[in-house]
C-alpha cells in the first residue's frame, strides 16, 4: 500500500510514491518551459504538459510497482486555467499569472465595487495575475473558444478530472480566480454578476481532502495503476507545501523555494480585513479544515533558471547547479540586484518595473552575479517578514522546502539575511509530500493529520545565521531599500 503525490508547477511537474512510513519509493521529474506565442504572452501548452504529467506518474508507479498505490492527490500552481470539454478533452492552452492580458478588463468590471467590499468577499487584491482577467480576455478576444468550453479547470482540478475524478475545484485554488467567496466557500454571485462570467463554466468548489472518485479503467491501464485508486481533492501548491513542511497548525510559516519563492503563514481563522489590507496580504483556505494562509511571493527558482540559461547555457547539465553554487563567494557581494524581472507578488505587486544588476566591474565573476541575485530576491521579502511579525506569526525559524532548499549556499544566504535559522527537512519536495499526506489522511491510512506529519516529516539540517554576515547584510539591506525608489520612475518609463 502506498500513496501518490503529484505536483504540477510553472516550469516542471513531479510525481512521487511514498509508503505509509513516509519513505519515498520513487520520485520522477519532467521540466518544461512556458511558451510565448506573442511578446508579453506567457502560456503553458496544456496538451504537452498533461502528457508530461502522465509520464511522471507512469514512471513513478513503475519504479514502485512492488508497493501498489491506493490513493493520490494533486498539488498545482494557481491561476492558470485550462479550457476543456465535457469529454475530458483539452481545447486550448492555459494562460499564466505572469501574462498581463485582461488586466485592464478586470479593472473596468470591478469598478462598480469599492476595494474594501471586494476584499471582504475574496481576500485578494484585483490585478492581472489572477484567472478572472484571462477569462475576460478570452471571452472578448476568443469568443468561440469561450463558448465551446464546458469547464475552465485549474491544473490540480484538470489532472484529477483527466484521471477519472469529478470536475471540481478546491477552495484554495478557487480563491486564485478572484471569483470565490472565502467566507461562504462558494462562487460569489455578486462577483460573477459584475464580471459576466457564467458560473456553469466553473467547477463546483469542494474542500481539499474530499474523495472525488477513482482512477478510470483506461487511465489505470495507461499509467500502470491498480484498479480502485482513489482520487482526493488536492489544492494550491503553497498550501500543500505548508503541510509537507509539517505545518499543520496556526502561528508558523514555511518558505517554499520553487519557481516562485513564497512565505506562507498559517492562521486558525480568517484574520481581520484592516491589518491584512494594510500589509497587502491575501487570505485563502489551507488544504486542512479550519485553517487559512497568506502568500508573500516573488520569482525565486525562475531567476536562477534565467541565470543558468543566460550565463551557463553551454555547460554540462549534470551537476551544474552544484558547480554554480561552488563559484559563489562566501562573503556578501558588493553587487545589488533589484528582483523585478517580472510582475511581483505581495506586498508590493509591482508590474511596471524591470530587474537591475548594479555595481558590475570588469572583475565581477559569474558566481558573484548568481549570489547577488539570491541576495536581492531574499531582500525582497523583508517587508513581508515585518508584516508577519506584526500579525503575530512566528519568524524565529523557517522551514525551507522546494528545489531551492537543496542548495546549502542559498539557505545560508537566507539565514544570514533574515537573522534566523533555516531548517531543511529530510524530504524537501513539500508540495508532493503534502499531497501524499492529504491522500493518506482522507482515505484512512492515517488516523489524522498529526500522525501523517509524524510519519512523513523530519529534519535533516539547520542553517544558523552568521552574526558577522548578518551585520553586513543589515547595512546592505538599507542600500537595497533606497535603490528602488531612486530608480522607480526610470524603470517604469523603460
What is the radius of gyration computed over CA atoms, rounded to a whole number of angstroms?
A: 22 Å
CATH class of the domain at 2-239: Alpha Beta
- List low-pLDDT spans: none
The name CATH uses for the topology of the domain at 2-239 is: Nucleotidyltransferase, domain 5
Number of helices: 19
Tell me the helix content.
25-40%
Please name the CATH architecture of the domain at 2-239. 2-Layer Sandwich
Distance between the termini: 57 Å
Number of strand elements:
24
Q: What class, by secondary structure content?
A: alpha+beta
- Report strand %: 15-25%
At the fourth level of CATH, the homologous superfamily of the domain at 2-239 is ATPase, nucleotide binding domain
Q: What report would you give on this structure?
A:
- It is a single chain.
- The chain has 19 helices and 24 strands.
- The protein is of the alpha+beta class.
- The longest helix has 27 residues.
Amino acid at each position: 500500500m502506498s500513496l501518490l503525490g503529484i505536483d504540477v508547477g510553472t516550469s516542471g511537474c513531479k510525481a512521487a510514491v511514498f509508503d505509509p512510513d513516509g519513505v519515498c519509493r520513487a520520485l520522477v521529474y519532467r521540466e518544461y518551459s512556458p511558451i510565448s506565442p506573442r511578446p508579453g504572452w506567457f502560456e503553458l501548452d496544456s496538451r504537452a504538459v498533461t502528457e508530461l504529467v502522465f509520464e511522471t506518474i507512469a514512471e513513478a508507479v513503475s519504479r514502485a510497482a512492488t508497493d501498489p498505490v491506493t490513493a493520490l492527490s494533486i498539488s498545482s500552481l494557481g491561476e492558470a486555467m485550462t479550457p476543456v470539454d465535457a469529454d475530458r478533452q483539452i481545447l486550448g492552452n492555459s494562460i499564466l499569472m505572469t501574462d498581463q492580458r485582461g488586466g485592464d478588463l478586470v479593472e473596468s468590471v470591478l469598478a462598480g465595487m469599492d476595494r474594501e467590499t471586494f476584499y471582504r468577499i475574496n481576500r485578494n487584491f484585483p490585478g492581472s495575475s489572477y484567472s478572472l482577467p484571462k477569462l475576460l480576455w478570452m471571452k472578448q478576444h476568443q469568443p468561440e473558444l469561450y463558448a465551446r468550453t464546458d469547464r475552465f479547470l485549474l491544473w490540480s482540478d484538470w489532472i484529477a478530472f483527466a484521471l477519472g475524478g469529478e470536475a471540481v475545484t478546491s477552495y484554495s485554488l478557487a480563491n486564485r480566480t478572484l471569483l470565490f467567496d472565502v467566507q461562504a466557500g462558494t462562487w460569489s454571485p455578486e462577483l460573477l454578476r459584475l464580471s459576466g462570467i457564467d458560473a456553469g463554466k466553473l467547477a463546483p468548489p469542494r474542500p481539499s481532502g474530499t474523495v472525488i472518485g477513482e482512477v478510470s479503467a483506461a487511465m489505470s491501464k495507461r499509467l500502470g495503476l491498480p484498479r480502485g485508486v482513489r482520487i482526493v481533492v488536492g489544492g494550491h501548491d503553497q498550501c500543500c507545501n505548508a503541510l509537507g513542511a509539517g505545518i499543520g497548525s496556526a502561528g508558523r510559516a514555511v518558505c517554499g523555494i520553487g519557481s516562485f519563492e513564497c512565505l506562507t503563514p498559517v492562521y486558525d481563522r480568517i484574520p481581520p480585513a484592516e491589518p491584512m489590507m494594510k500589509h497587502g496580504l491575501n487570505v485563502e483556505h489551507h488544504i486542512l479544515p479550519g485553517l487559512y494562509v497568506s502568500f508573500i511571493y516573488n520569482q525565486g527558482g525562475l531567476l536562477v533558471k534565467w541565470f543558468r540559461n543566460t550565463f551557463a547555457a553551454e555547460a554540462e547539465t549534470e551537476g551544474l547547479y552544484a558547480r554554480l553554487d561552488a563559484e559563489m563567494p562566501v562573503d556578501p557581494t558588493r553587487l545589488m540586484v533589484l528582483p523585478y524581472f517580472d510582475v511581483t507578488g505581495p506586498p508590493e505587486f509591482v508590474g511596471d518595473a524591470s530587474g537591475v544588476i548594479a555595481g558590475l566591474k570588469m572583475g565581477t565573476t559569474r558566481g558573484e552575479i548568481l549570489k547577488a541575485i539570491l541576495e536581492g530576491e531574499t531582500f525582497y521579502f523583508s517587508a513581508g517578514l515585518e508584516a508577519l511579525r506584526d500579525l503575530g506569526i512566528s519568524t524565529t525559524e523557517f522551514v525551507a522546502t522546494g528545489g531551492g532548499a537543496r542548495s546549502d549556499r542559498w539557505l545560508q544566504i537566507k539565514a544570514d539575511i533574515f537573522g534566523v535559522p533555516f531548517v531543511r527537512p529530510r524530504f524537501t519536495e513539500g508540495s508532493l509530500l503534502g499531497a501524499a499526506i492529504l491522500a493518506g489522511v482522507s482515505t484512512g491510512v492515517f488516523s489524522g493529520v498529526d500522525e501523517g506529519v509524524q510519519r512523513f516529516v523530519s529534519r535533516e539540517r539547520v542553517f544558523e545565521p552568521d552574526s558577522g554576515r548578518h551585520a553586513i547584510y543589515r547595512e546592505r539591506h538599507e542600500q537595497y531599500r533606497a535603490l528602488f525608489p531612486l530608480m522607480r520612475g526610470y524603470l517604469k518609463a523603460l
